[in-house]
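RETRY 2/3 - previous attempt timed out on the joint model. Re-submitting the same 233-residue input unchanged.
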Amino acid sequence: QVQLQESGPGLVKPSQTLSLTCIVSGGSIKSDTYYWSWIRQPAGKGLEWVGRIYSSGYTDYNPSLKSRVTLSLDTSKNQFSLSLRSVTATDTAVYYCARASGWVFENGMDVWGQGTTVTVSS
Amino acid sequence: QSVLTQPPSASGTPGQRVTISCSGSSSNIGSNTANWYQQLPGTAPKLLIYSTNKRPSGVPDRFSGSKSDTSASLAISGLQSEDEADYYCATWDDSLSGLYVFGVGTKVTVL
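RETRY 2/3 succeeded.
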């Protein structure tokens, strides 16, 4: 079965770039059935969708983050990545990667990583 | 501030039925199907309902979903202690360039 695992620094300084990777195992990231997403959750708060990337490299981003976010794929390593620029303390959160299907995610996000905590602090 | 409104909390005794509402608008729930996620403390969310009323394999039939106009609902019948968790509705919003939106979440407590 497909499993996702996030990795990356747990601490990022303000104004720097947050970079995370999601390693996909048990399935191919090149599948044309799925979209690969990032979601974040500040401590004690709700979920916020960051963006998605398709096997072709097509991306959609949350408009509130669009100017600072880039998602990318590395098919040779079967992984996808998140880059969030110019971070501030408000970007401190648990970051999850997830798999979704359906153009408007009508089939939901059925596989999630365990999440990784990122703190923005000097 | 989410575009999907959920009650902050709901509760019931074991065996009772609990319903959680999710209110949206014509650009989200009114145009697209709803998904529901369950998040147990300290864990990643889990897909509970997709396409408004479908259950993934392994999800008990005590969980059911429905939709009417711009609102969706999740019902938990025969409430069990292990159902104590946060529940989030979610759907695609067609406004702007499109994005996936989550509700603010509802904490279900089993009394």
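Strands of chain B lie at 9-12, 18-23, 35-39, 46-49, 63-68, 71-76, 85-93, 99-102, 106-110. Closing ticket.
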